[in-house]
Amino acid sequence: TQLLEQSPQFLSIQEGENLTVYCNSSSVFSSLQWYRQEPGEGPVLLVTVVTGGEVKKLKRLTFQFGDARKDSSLHITAAQPGDTGLYLCAGRDSNYQLIWGAGTKLIIKP
Amino acid sequence: NAGVTQTPKFQVLKTGQSMTLQCAQDMNHNSMYWYRQDPGMGLRLIYYSASEGTTDKGEVPNGYNVSRLNKREFSLRLESAAPSQTSVYFCASSWDPSPLHFGNGTRLTVT
Predict the structure, then answer these.
(1) Which chain B residues have a beta carbon less than 8 Å from that of A36?
(2) Are A49 and A102 in contact, with CB atoms under 8 Å apart?
(3) Most CB atoms closer than 10 Å: which of B3, B34, B69, B80?
(4) Rounded to an integer, what distance in angstroms lies between the CA atom of residue B23 and that of residue B76?
(5) Which residues of A touch B105 (CB under 8 A)?
């Protein structure tokens, strides 16, 4: 069974702080997607990383795919209350199946 | 642009009752999915349909059935609801292997 472990499960920080969320596996993925989910809504895609070592930036969010394509990280600089939500990672395996992490619940306090 | 539309948004059932969750997408996607989301467990795939006329079991199919009515619509049926099926259900669609587009979910409580 393939697993995609996200850490931390829960994070509550003050506005303006920096944070990093991790997504780790022993399996290799052809691509990895990050989604954000707000209460009462479905997940919405933030970014897809495809190449080992790839770094993508979305305003204050920086996404990195590990060199071996087994792990990924999401770094938020100067977090704002609007960043509050559940962050989910999902890896595409060799059978094109999506393997989901359990999510990181992020709360940014004003 | 509606995207993925799920109905109903909320439902309360008694144990043993049946119901069908409806999902429709207007993006001409080939693949559609049903997931359930429970606290601390992320998204678990119930069933998916890679194209019109085909359906396949996912990770947790027991107690559910699906119908890919046409390219737009993919329904999920609970024949005899159980308390363990209390969850939030999400429908999604995509052009495989592109990322998924999700609906806003159906919150189901089985008492």
Answers:
(1) none
(2) no
(3) B34
(4) 8
(5) 40-42
The string of pLDDT tens digits covering residues A71-95 is 999 999 999 999 999 999 999 988 8
Q: Are A42 and B4 in contact, with CB atoms under 8 Å apart?
A: yes
- Higher pLDDT: A18 or B1? It is A18
Nearest to A42 among B40, B44, B104 (CB): B104
The per-residue pLDDT for B8 is 97
Using an 8 Å CB-CB cutoff, list chain B residues near A42.
4, 90, 92, 102-105
Structure tokens at A78: 């100067």
The answer to whether B46 touches B36, Cβ cutoff 8 Å, is yes
Q: Are A79 and A61 in contact (CB under 8 A)?
A: no
A18-50, pLDDT tens digit by residue? 999 999 999 999 999 999 999 999 999 999 999
CA of B91: which chain A residue's CA is closest? A42
CA of A66, closest CA in chain B: separation in Å?
Answer: 19
Cα(B101)–Cα(B103) distance, integer angstroms: 7
